[in-house]
Amino acid sequence: SLSPLPFPPHQPSHVPLFSVHLLPLFRNPCTSFALPLCRPTHSIMSWIDIQEKAFRGWTNQYLTRRGMNVESLYTDLSDGLALIALVEELTHPKTVGRYNKKTKLPFQKLENIGIVLKFLEKEGLKMVNIGPEDIMNGNQRIILGLIWSLILRYQISLGKGDGDGADGSAKDELLKWVQSKIPDYNIKNFKGDWLDGKAINALVDALNPGLSPNHASLGGTDAERAQKGLDIAYDEWGVPKIMTGEEFGKDEMSMMTYIAMLRDVDPSKGASKLGPAPGED
């Protein structure tokens, strides 16, 4: 059987970086929703699960500041409240303005989502072919695309960029940072070069020498080595484990998200640069 190719496919050079860009669709006979292309089911399901989990973990690190948590990006953003909280944390001290804090009725949910989408447009993120109904109804492809746009702008590019096609440059800059830290590993991508788990251990050791000094000769399976690196980063700096060692290196966007989070730690303080919520000491 066939199922959709993971979102998003390779982005055309003319497509702006910070946008939810949707390629022409057709109805997939294997699913109840439209998605770009087809691929064997076993591949797409693991891919989507890894990405949703990673993006959800990234989202929750901000939502916890407000005592919130989402268990599914597809259902828990439907009233707009968590999305508003996420965006306000990312753009602090800005706010989206007035919105419905109680959302018993569908129109209140749609209104909230519309408010945050308009706010993001003012921030320079181009909302292409996305509407409040897509979020409220749990459109997986669009929701993952929206969260990825937020990750690109506010995590990987650190809030910089004007939305004019910097996708490649953002990725390249992150890759250059990795290469500067662990040049011996000759890392050229955010997938296959990380699969054996040694590079992530080398990276955490580069950030704080002595954390994994034997990274080049670590025993165990690929997944076990990757898990060791993830555990060290969490224990030392609180970097959320948005994926497992088994999932590590299998989805480019999830990997870019995690490596950007690792880049933004402050090893001298033993904590993430994210720090406390705004207003906390």
TrEMBL record:
Pfam families: CH
Keywords, comma-separated and alphabetical: Actin-binding, Repeat
BP GO annotations: actin cytoskeleton organization
Keyword flag Transmembrane: no
Molecular function GO labels: actin filament binding
Residues covered by the Calponin-homology (CH) domain: 49-155, 168-267
Protein name: Calponin-homology (CH) domain-containing protein
Native source species: Sexangularia sp. CB-2014
